[in-house]
Amino acid sequence: xxxxxxxxxxxxxxxxxxxxxxxxxxxxxxxxxxxxxxxxxxxxxxxxxxxxxxxxxxxxxxxxxxxxxxxxxxxxxxxxxxxxxxxxxxxxxxxxxxxxxxxxxxxxxxxxxxxxxxxxxxxxxxxxxxxxxxxxxxxxxxxxxxxxxxxxxxxxxxxxxxxxxxxxxxxxxxxxxxxxxxxxxxxxxxxxxxxxxxxxxxxxxxxxxxxxxxxxxxxxxxxxxxxxxxxxxxxxxxxxxxxxxxxxxx
Length: 250
Description:
Elements: H1 6-9, E1 15-21, E2 30-38, E3 45-53, E4 60-64, E5 71-78, E6 87-93, E7 101-107, E8 114-118, H2 119-125, E9 128-133, E10 137-142, E11 147-152, H3 158-164, E12 176-188, E13 197-205, E14 212-223, E15 226-235, H4 243-249
Antiparallel strand pairs: 1-2, 2-3, 3-4, 5-6, 6-7, 7-8, 9-10, 9-12, 10-11, 12-13, 13-14, 14-15
């Protein structure tokens, strides 16, 4: 979308992030902006908008965002599709206790904005069941790829475990946990071919959000005009090793 009066008004907009690179495929670096309205005495930003200036013609293109409010809006340019031009990764923190993020990726070949990653679509597709089991285990079931993972919670403190299990390690009552929506999306070129994959983080929680059990790490790769699951891991926190245990290990 081209706005004829936009060039003169550019200085009046609140630029919250800026990067430079060829995003339309003509080989000439373009200017990519996120603009927004900062709340007084707060880092909260509203009306966040993607604006691209064609480096060759100087024309401006405005791309509205569906979710356009949050904290620390940021831009990253990288080739996610393998077409040789940079795509535009937008990241916005929601500010919630779960560390949930908004992420969009746009392709802008031939000055046409195309949404190729939407965090809402991702969150709807990648869903999980988290179920506490007897003997200090928690099962995570990833529905998209039908994979099951077992998290050992036997090293948690006794008060936590005693609230959940009896003296024989049996559940006192059924308990389910949950997996938060997307809480981080990181560009990583795992195979060093110049094309970025996406590493998506989702927090695994137990009885409440602060009861963190680990993270689901999904690696997404561009294939057949969409991002598909290429690899999946579950990461957990370690426990402190006592000095006496270190001596045994050595």
